[in-house]
Design goal:
Strand content of chain A: 5-15%
Oligomer: homodimer
Largest interface: A-B, 40 and 40 residues
Distance between the termini of chain A: 7 Å
Number of domains of chain A: 2
Order of helices and strands of chain A: HEHEHEHHEHEHEEHEHEHEEHHH
CATH superfamily of the largest domain in chain A: Aldolase class I
Number of helices of chain A: 13
Low-confidence stretches of chain A: none
Radius of gyration of chain A: 19 Å
Mean pLDDT of chain A: 95
Amino acid sequence: MLTQLWDLKLPLIQAPMAGVQGSALTIAVSNAGGLGSLPCALLSREELVQELETIRNQTDKPFNVNFFCHTLPVEDPLKNQAWQSALSPYYKEYNVDFSTNKIPTKRRSFDEESIEILEHYKPAVVSFHFGLPSSELLVRVRKWGARIISSATTVAEAVYLEEKGVDAIIAQGLEAGGHRGHFLSDDLTQQAGTFALLPQIVQAVNCPIIAAGGIADKQGVLAALNLGASAVQVGTAYLLCPEVKANALHRAAIKSARSKHTAIANVFTGRPARSIVNKLIRELGPLRADMPPFPLASTALVPLRAAAEQRACDDFTPLWCGQNASGCKEISASELTHLLCEGIRVG
Amino acid sequence: MLTQLWDLKLPLIQAPMAGVQGSALTIAVSNAGGLGSLPCALLSREELVQELETIRNQTDKPFNVNFFCHTLPVEDPLKNQAWQSALSPYYKEYNVDFSTNKIPTKRRSFDEESIEILEHYKPAVVSFHFGLPSSELLVRVRKWGARIISSATTVAEAVYLEEKGVDAIIAQGLEAGGHRGHFLSDDLTQQAGTFALLPQIVQAVNCPIIAAGGIADKQGVLAALNLGASAVQVGTAYLLCPEVKANALHRAAIKSARSKHTAIANVFTGRPARSIVNKLIRELGPLRADMPPFPLASTALVPLRAAAEQRACDDFTPLWCGQNASGCKEISASELTHLLCEGIRVG
């Protein structure tokens, strides 16, 4: 199990969830014996430093910093135009102007600046989504002894990651909420549910496998370990914890019957990601052709989302959620972490 | 576990697989202590009687007869025309004529004639795909004491089936091969992977749940039981057994690396079904709008498929397969059944 390898009490990684959490969740889970994670993709330099300082002050346990390593997008005026056209009826309805867009939401990719900051804090684990950064950057990460992990949505991606020398691989089943982590192919038919993906990845590679997608309670944790996982990664179940910063609309959707109906949609950011179905998904998605490349599609949504949310309307809000929200509870992240691993014999 | 309830030695149902198996597989699995299944949808009256006679002669163990209960389709000339247009380049390539179609492939729906035949053999279990037949027909099935089961692809479908009084529900995860069993909605985004679907159905209803989709070996069986299933249904893993009638092209595809890439496609029959990706799926699928209603779409494929198969080409052959073909072995169905349940404590 990953516990012996990585100095963890529990074989559980809290999934990094950009946009809905900060260091509070990271700290709570690490202090509870799991591996807390900090999503860094949406953080500015200053915010990243501040979060790492906070973590250092509140826990001495291992934690995980997570970065996207998508290819930096090239603006495509035709695609931008098409996307804005598609959105313009809603702009009219909400009486909002495209030109009131704030500065486009940045998605930090893993780069020199990130490394320089991390070198001061030496996080025990550095995780990546959408493949891996360059070997030059990875070499510097290894210098402070960090473990490196990344997500695989297919057996081929797992084999690739092992060849690149990762310390463990996250097998991201179709059930998982948020962005699909694929990087070798964008053909979604190649991706599989956890029951199929996990054992086939376990058979195909030697390094430890972390199961992700659909795990909501201790039975799920146990089932994943039985299927050969060395640990599990859980995201959705934490969404109602007080340490999470999901907004009121997102929480309300998680608590409602709507949480049973999610879809993989590219209409929020340009990349496929699993969210509770809302108006934007129903009317323009779920998977739209010729979207602006990730993450540029979100720019045109910013004022529209803001206007709708002011009316307590989640029509344009990304309601990230996996296919199994049954584990969400309004309890502390620490309590949830213990519940998830209750009775799991760590050995 | 279903074993105590249903007089089975093993908590395993062999999935009925229309088009690739007959009574030989049913008999082998029932004699091995599982519940063998006979798919009846493609059988004429005479064939059904013959198969039931054969089963009666070769096993005294419980077995399951499976029927589709789709709505009988209405021919739509416009859709037929569009579908034939889409196929015509391939017809030209193979120099085949639409008019050489044999009589359209029938899909027996569950009806009076079926009941009259079954009443002579009184199968222990009668299972349905695509919902349930009318209550009048079900009342007659119950007269000989048969158990009634059906497939649910969502929690809502499971609740519906329980309200209709089924004896157990098959939770069909997205990983499963063959036709998706949905009947309340054809919105595929409502369907979930086994890891998410199974525990949520278990929580929502009281009757026993049979897990299906992605289960390929004993670890999978154990994981499904841990997630609350009373039994499992396994289909794909049996596809290389000698008792199965999958043709040589289908077997070859299962044995190759291509078996890792499946898709839910409606281009074979008009209804979404999971198959290994082949040319028809790549070029006209996977999910095509305005297909002729199930099962009429298969009519136009018959001569094309025959011509291609004569050239040892599987471009138009339905290569039914789930997302986890790793359990397929060229061993007897009896041996496979025992392997799948090895070490499972029946209690």
